[in-house]
Amino acid sequence: MEVFRLQNKKYPVVLSGKSASLIGARWNSKGTEVIYTAQNRALAMAEVAVHLTLATLPSNFCMIKVFIPNDIPIFTLNPDILHKDWNVFPENVQTQKLGDSLIRENEFAVICVPSAVVKGEFNFLINPNHKDFKRIKIIQQEDFPFDKRIFSNDK
Questions:
Q1: Is the pTM of the predicted complex or chain greater than 0.70?
Q2: Are strands 74-76 and 110-114 parallel, antiparallel or unpaired?
Q3: Least crowded by CB within 10 Å, which of 4, 26, 44, 84?
Q4: Residue 41 three-state SS
């Protein structure tokens, strides 16, 4: 399976989970390492774009394609167990605790979770502490220029 991650090139293009652990996010609290990826390029872009404006539009992003071998089991989180406000911003501490628990249990290298940005789409959380993590690889990296029309008010 291939998943995607949009990343600022000012940081090393590696799979580590360190940056997510510095501040926390929807599915992890501060201190928990996890790598956020998306099921497709468009979702990877949307997940980043919701945090940007035209004034803060970066020019130094790259799209990373990540290969997850098909024999690595993926845990799929059942969205029915989530609180009704699981997708609010700022992030809900309940989703962070759930993600932390799944990472800490270390049973799965990859966890499929619903996207809070695009209903019906999914993100894949990669656990850098799982034994199968070493088999998950970046297989492509290419510059990703944002189309300014996404942020334009001239419509």
A1: yes
A2: parallel
A3: 84
A4: helix
Q: Which residue bears the tokens 């993100």?
A: 123
> Is it the case that residue 34 has pLDDT exceeding 50?
yes
Three-state SS string across 46-104, please?
HHHHCCCCHHHCCCCEEEEEEECCCCCCEEECCHHHCCCCCCCCCCCHHHHHHHHHHHH
69-109 pLDDT, tens per residue? 999 999 999 999 998 889 988 888 999 999 999 999 999 99
**Distance (Å) of CA 35 to CA 63, 119, 126, 154:** 14, 20, 5, 35
Q: What is the C-alpha separation between 80 and 143, in angstroms, rounded? A: 37
Interatomic CA distance for residues 67 and 88, integer angstroms: 30
CA atoms within 13 A on the CB side of 102: 25
Q: What are phi and psi of 21, to 5 degrees?
A: -75, -20
